[in-house]
Specification:
Oligomer: single chain
Largest sheet: 6 strands, antiparallel
Number of helices: 0
Strand order of the largest sheet: 2-9-4-5-7-8
Distance between the termini: 22 Å
Low-confidence stretches: 137-152
Length: 152
């Protein structure tokens, strides 16, 4: 939780960004036997981004894959993000030919990048890699953005 500020101080050119990253205990986490990530979260109604960092041939040593994560205010939900929904980005640009290599995950991150000043809060209870193909073909548990005013 925190307070998003849009103020720029010192050498900053832009602001309005907050993130946390969880690195793997080993250098690389092999998630090849899974096809989605479930995040049990209680949010604030804002849209977050889930980031998967993967080992790669880029000079910086990793590739970034991102997917949107919608939250409800003060309601615990399980957000399922199929690996197929992650898109590769590099220096802020989508790399359409990029394909997530689930066998080379080095970190998972969550970011808030909506540039809206004010308080934010995202509680994370669990993050779990899951296999969904036998269960529901990767359908969302609570993936879609809630309709305005429904409280869903």
């Amino acid at each position: 939780h925190g307070h998003m500020s849009l103020a720029c101080t010192g050498k900053m050119k832009r602001s309005g960004f907050a993130s946390a990253m969880f690195k793997t205990e080993s250098n690389v986490l092999d998630l090849d036997e899974f096809d989605a990530i479930d995040l049990r979260v209680r949010g604030d109604g804002r849209t977050y981004v889930c980031n998967l960092h993967c080992d790669s041939w880029f000079l910086d040593g990793w590739s970034l894959f991102q997917a949107f994560m919608y939250t409800d205010s003060d309601k615990w939900t399980t957000v399922r993000i199929p690996f197929r929904d992650f898109v590769q980005t590099h220096n802020g640009f989508v790399q359409p030919e990029g394909k997530l290599n689930a066998g080379k995950v080095t970190a998972l991150g969550i970011a808030l990048m909506d540039r809206k000043e004010g308080p934010f809060r995202l509680d994370v209870e669990t993050i779990t890699a899951v296999r969904t193909d036998a269960e529901d073909n990767g359908a969302a548990v609570e993936r879609a953005k809630p309709e305005s005013g429904t409280g869903a």
